[in-house]
Design brief:
The longest helix is centred in the C-terminal third of the chain and has 22 residues. The termini are far apart. The protein has about 500 residues and is α/β, with parallel strands linked by helices. The protein folds into 3 domains: about 170 residues, Rossmann fold; about 260 residues, tm_1862 like domain (pyruvate-formate lyase- activating enzyme, Alpha-Beta Horseshoe); about 30 residues. The radius of gyration is 23 Å and the shape is globular.
Length: about 500
């Protein structure tokens, strides 16, 4: 065993939600992967997931503090007595709590080496290094970069020039080694070190959701990055330029391990796009069926609609997949393919949605409104398209603009966002990513976009209940408490409809 003791931390965070029971604490797979690589290389590793080790407490109206207090976290760090600490920051909205965690580490012992990783620090490393509490920022995929960094610290080697994908301070100057190397074959990585985490607590802190079959849900990542080049997406700046899949047998081996060791009943494939290859998807499904694993599974981030057909969907359903998130994004062909570069035909969407509905999948679709080039007519086309499809649910969001992406640079250049205001919004826990702020389009004021989003939800809900009034019964079966929400839902729709009818432009 090597001398350097490494601690990995998932900080507490603030969660904006109406109800405490809707808070869903998820096992941090990224930290578990890093821990597995370090363990394989004979380092002593521990993980503190502050989010699951503490309680969920109301912070203010509609906002909950998830996990340990910072005083409690400080005591836990002291107990571990680490030499190196890595802190996760998956999203911009968690930056403040990430920095506060790094601050208390340095208060415990200024000699502890501190690094952070995650989506937001990867594209915004300067703001993290400027705090003075962080020694290194790891850029993008972090397993092998972490190992290189810890090896340097173990060997007292201060020269970091040969480490791929790292930013750091050098004699008061900020330096960044670009990320150029990504793991070509993710199957070569050891499985995440879940044994270092309190796995049962994630089941206890699993929210009851309309699209969840069991609280004993666990996550698996079957591939890295994505094959598409959607203009609004930041996946390639963090996940790498190409899609890299794991071997299907390796994937199902891990799923079987989770079923046998943890009694997992449901698996969420947390890839950015796991169904890129038809043959690989079929191989995974056939292997699950062959082994009679008897699990439910789903793909929260969405599937590649282009690669689906009746054969693939039938196998997915037979192997336990029950829910599909369709990243349709727009029902307007110009917005979909010229602006967003989705390379997807609306007829293909109609075909796949129809087959999936016929096979009994729960169908949710993602739509984006408010991209540059959006018009009143293109939004109307999206609304009508959503109403046409046999969907159970829709999610309507505004485009996310993440630093480090070409889309971000274009928005700055064209005046669609103010850089300083945008960065403040990204880290404000009162604002929800994709929901509370958007780019400023000259032809569509923000107030109008908010009204369009309300209209989108309202018209879709009314259309669905007219065509399939029994669909609400399924929601009741999944979540009996939904009956308590019905008066409020109807009241909101009536108020919204009344405002719409009273508007002189309606």
């Amino acid at each position: 065993m090597k001398n350097t003791k490494v601690l990995l931390i998932n900080p507490p965070y603030l969660n904006r939600t109406r109800r405490k029971k809707d808070v869903n604490v998820v096992l941090p797979l990224s930290l578990a992967y890093i821990a597995a690589v370090l363990e394989k290389n004979e380092y002593k590793v521990s993980i503190i997931d502050a989010a699951v080790e503490g309680d969920v407490k109301q912070f203010e109206e509609g906002i909950y503090h998830v996990g340990l207090s910072f005083d409690e976290l400080k005591e836990r760090i002291k107990q571990e007595n680490p030499d190196v600490v890595g802190v996760s920051c998956p999203f911009a909205i968690r930056m403040k709590f990430t920095v506060e965690t790094c601050k208390i580490i340095k208060e415990i012992n200024p000699n502890i080496k501190v690094f952070v990783g995650g989506i937001h620090p990867s594209v915004n490393y300067e703001d993290f290094l400027k705090t003075g509490y962080i020694d290194y920022v790891l850029i993008a995929e972090a397993e092998l970069t972490t190992l290189d960094l810890v090896n340097h610290i173990e060997n007292n080697n201060p020269n970091l020039l040969d480490i791929d994908g790292i930013a750091y301070m050098d004699n008061g100057e900020m330096r960044k080694n670009p990320k150029t190397k990504f793991i070509k074959n993710p199957s070569e990585l050891p499985w995440p070190a879940r044994h270092l985490l309190k796995v049962e607590k994630y089941f206890e802190n699993s929210a009851v959701r309309w699209d969840k079959k069991s609280k004993r849900e666990m996550s698996v990542i079957t591939s890295r990055s994505c094959h598409q080049r959607c203009t609004f997406c930041s996946v390639h700046s963090v996940g790498g330029p190409t899609w890299r899949p794991r071997d299907p047998i390796d994937v199902v081996d891990e799923i079987e391990h989770l079923v046998k060791k943890y009694n997992a009943k449901e698996i969420a494939l947390e890839d950015d796009n796991p169904t890129v290859s038809r043959e690989r998807t079929k191989a995974i499904c056939n292997e699950i069926i062959k082994r009679k694993l008897n699990i439910y599974w789903k793909v929260p981030a969405g599937v590649s609609i282009r690669t689906l057909d009746r054969e693939v969907l039938t196998l997915m359903r037979k192997s336990g997949c029950y829910s599909l998130n369709l990243p349709i994004e727009s029902g307007d062909d110009y917005m979909l393919n010229t602006v967003m570069n989705k390379q997807l035909s609306l007829d293909k969407v109609r075909e796949i949605a129809g087959i999936a509905h016929e096979l009994g999948f729960i169908l949710n679709a993602y739509f984006i409104i408010g991209m540059p080039g959006e018009t009143h007519q293109s939004i109307r086309n999206s609304i009508e398209f959503a109403k046409e499809l046999p969907l159970d649910k829709i999610t309507v969001i505004f485009p996310s603009v993440l630093p480090g992406t070409a889309f971000y640079n274009d928005c700055i250049k064209n005046g669609y966002i103010d850089k300083e205001e945008h960065m403040k919004n990204l880290t404000d826990h009162h604002l929800a990513l994709f929901g509370d702020y958007m780019i400023k389009l000259p032809n569509l004021p923000q107030e109008e976009l908010i009204k369009y989003r309300e209209m989108f939800y309202r018209e879709f809900t009314i259309s669905k209940l007219k065509k399939r009034p029994w669909s609400f019964l399924y929601l009741l079966k999944r979540d009996p408490t939904a009956i308590l929400k019905l008066p409020g839902m109807l009241s909101r729709h009536i108020r919204s409809l009344s405002k719409h009818l009273a508007s002189p432009t309606s």
